[in-house]
Amino acid sequence: MKVLRTMLSVVTLLFVLTLDAMFLAAQTNRGGITGTVFDPHGAVVAGATVTVRNLGTNQKINAKTSNSGTYTVLSLDPVTYSVTVEASGFETTIVDTIKVDTAEIATVNVTLKLGTTSTSVTVHTTAPQINVESGTTSSTVTERTTAKTRPSGSRLSGDCPALRTAGCPLP
Predict the structure, then answer these.
(1) How far apart are CA 78 and CA 60, in angstroms?
(2) Domain CATH number, residue 9
(3) pLDDT at residue number 73
(4) Largest CA distance in the chain
(5) How many domains does the chain have?
(6) CA–CA separation, 3 vs 129, rounded Å?
(7) pLDDT band for position 171 (50/70/90)?
(8) Residue 20 belongs to some domain of the structure
(9) What Rg do the C-alpha atoms of the chain give, in angstroms?
C-alpha cells in the first residue's frame, strides 16, 4: 500500500511539473519537446537516454526518461530537431525532422524495438507533429509569409518611393 501511495505521489508530481513547464514555455519565444518511451509491448522504459539535436547547429541536449518513461526538453529555439532514444536491450531509434514552434511543446512518443544498441532505426517524419497536449495548431510566421498574405491594395511605408506632404497617391 505504501509503495502504491509513493508511486501515485511521483506520478502526480511529474504531472504538475509538466503542466508548470508548459505554462512557463507558453510565455517565451522558445519551445520544447516532450514524450514517453515505450517497449514493444507498450510498457514504459525508464532510464532511457534521449538526445535532442538541433539539425541546423548540431547542438545536442541529453535527457533521461523518468520512472514513468517520460522526458521533457524545454527552452529550445523554434527550429527543426531530431530525437535519438537509446536503452539497454533495445535498438537505437532516431526520429528526425521535428519542428518546434515558438511557445509550443511538440510531443514525440517513441516505441523501441528489441535488439542491441548497435542497431539503429530511423523514423522519417514528413507530416507536422500534432500537439496532443493542447489540441491547437500553429505555425511560424515569417516576413515572406506576411508579404504573400497581405491584402491587395494595402500599403506599407516602403510602397511609396518618397513620402510627400500629401502622402501617397490613391490607386
Answers:
(1) 15
(2) 2.60.40.10
(3) 97
(4) 81
(5) 1
(6) 36
(7) low
(8) yes
(9) 22
Structural domain of residue 113, as residue ranges? Answer: 2-148
The full length of the chain comes to 171
Nearest CA-CA partner of 55 in 92, 100, 116: 100
Which stretches of the chain are assigned E, i.e. beta strand? 31-38, 49-54, 60-64, 70-76, 80-86, 92-99, 105-107, 110-111, 120-124
What whole-number distance in Å separates Cα of residue 75 and Cα of residue 19? 15
Cβ atoms of 81 and 98 within 8 Å: the answer is yes
Residue 130 is placed in which grid cell?
500534432
User: How far apart are alpha carbons 165 and 128 in whole angstroms?
Assistant: 49
Q: Is the pLDDT of residue 58 over 80?
A: yes
- pLDDT, one tens digit per residue, over 69-110 is 999 999 999 999 999 999 999 999 999 999 999 989 999 999
